[in-house]
Amino acid sequence: MADKRKLQGEIDRCLKKVAEGVEQFEDIWKKLHNAANANQKEKYEADLKKEIKKLQRLRDQIKTWVASNEIKDKRQLVENRKLIETQMERFKVVERETKTKAYSKEGLGLAQKVDPAQKEKEETEQWLTNTIDTLNMQVDQFESEVESLSVQTRKKKGDKEKQDRIEELKRLIERHRHHILMLETILRMLDNDSIQVDAIHKIKDDVEYYIDSSQDPDFEENEFIYDDLDLEEIPTTLMATSPQGHTEDDMFLQSSSTPTSTTSSSPIPPSPATGTTVNRFLSFFLSSQSSLLRISVIFFIDPAVSEVNLPPSLGACPLGPTPLTKEQLYQQAMQESTWTHMPHPSDSERIRQYLMRNPCPTPPFHHQVPPHHSDSIEFYQRLSTETLFFIFYYLEGTKAQYLSAKALKKQSWRFHTKYMMWFQRHEEPKTITDEFEQGTYIYFDYEKWGQRKKEGFTFEYRYLEDRDLQ
């Protein structure tokens, strides 16, 4: 439970930073467009780039949480990730405008390129992209709910209501994926000018009705939404089966340049000997799932479709598998082993052994060698608090300093990285927020070498040294 609260606190702080970053981005964006000269624009552009880099780092953290199974409700995370991606798209517009010189041929002809038909096409492409994203987000929610219900049904068998809900969610996931595939195909056709915008407008209401009402009890789906678009008769160069293993990042990277699908196909010309117009082509999809390589070969023969699954070895070596050498088998085993022993950030910090700076002879009745188990945390926990402070401040960079810090943390002392002092709550804080806590604290003053009390002290969490000392 404590780990979940800590994780939720980290998520809340991250989302707060996203909101602040987007607000700062908007402010710089307005200043950039109101700038009077080129020097100001360059300055604001640099500030904008710095801000988008911060947002991208936050987006990477959010993506990690979205992929985690510990978080069930991911709607807020997905919304914030998409909010950051929107700002990334806006920044790309700024970059393109900067690269387009004011008096170049491209700059002078820019106003002539945007005509009503092109604008309508771009708006339709944006609608298709947003609709696909919405469907994908709903699929993620359905899958999360299925996983949660499956765990509950394993604990309590015979719950027919939950079983029915799972079956209903699986049916919705299947229908959603069908619509995603159809809309991705339409998106590719529109990008290649193989379909008219008016034809897409005819299905818009039905698709939006499906998204809004597909979970209603009295919902009746129109199974003939796409029949008028003749998707079965489109050229084979536009047909591609979307792999189930595609990631959201692939979707974003593809849509940031030209709205295309996450997969593509390369047509193979028909054999001249046949003299027919039959197109046959192969599409290889490689996706890594649980360290397994899956290769699918799709044959299209304008309208029958057949699928053949090949073993990974035949996909890589059509003539048959080649036995691995002893060295290759060893390297493969070592590579698999690395995934089960991932490094920790603290592993890069080398622990130095304590070496006496000024060794001197001592009477034989004193310890001539360190006491038994003196390098263990149990030994340090038996030492007095003042002794631990002495070791921490006077044996810097040694294992002894590390163990003394670990022992102090177990006594509820917390290190303040700004003042370089150890603090301990004297009583429960009067104020606790996501950013700080305020109250009365006991701290150790290493300059006057003694414990002091500080009332009304604000301990900002950004100065808290909170590494997990293993």
From TrEMBL:
Residue ranges with Low complexity bias: 255-266
Pfam families assigned to the protein according to its UniProt record, in alphabetical order: NOT2_3_5_C (PF04153), Not3 (PF04065)
Protein localization: Cytoplasm, P-body; Nucleus
A GO cellular-component term linked to this record: cytosol
Main location: cytoplasm
Domain of life, per lineage: Eukaryota
InterPro entries associated with the record: CCR4-NOT_su2/3/5_C_sf, CCR4-NOT_su3/5, Not2/3/5, NOT2/3/5_C, Not_N
GO biological process, one term: regulatory ncRNA-mediated gene silencing
Limits of the CCR4-Not complex component Not N-terminal domain: 4-232
Coiled-coil spans in chain: none
Keywords: Cytoplasm, Developmental protein, Nucleus, Phosphoprotein, Repressor, RNA-mediated gene silencing, Transcription, Transcription regulation, Translation regulation
Stretches assigned to the NOT2/NOT3/NOT5 C-terminal domain: 339-464
Region entry Disordered, spans: 242-273
Assigned protein family: Belongs to the CNOT2/3/5 family.
PANTHER family attached to this UniProt entry: CCR4 NOT-RELATED (PTHR23326)
Subunit and interaction comment: Component of the CCR4-NOT complex; distinct complexes seem to exist that differ in the participation of probably mutually exclusive catalytic subunits. In the complex interacts directly with CNOT2. Interacts with TIP120B and NANOS2. Interacts with EBF1. Interacts in an RNA-independent manner with BICC1 (via KH domains).
Full protein name: CCR4-NOT transcription complex subunit 3
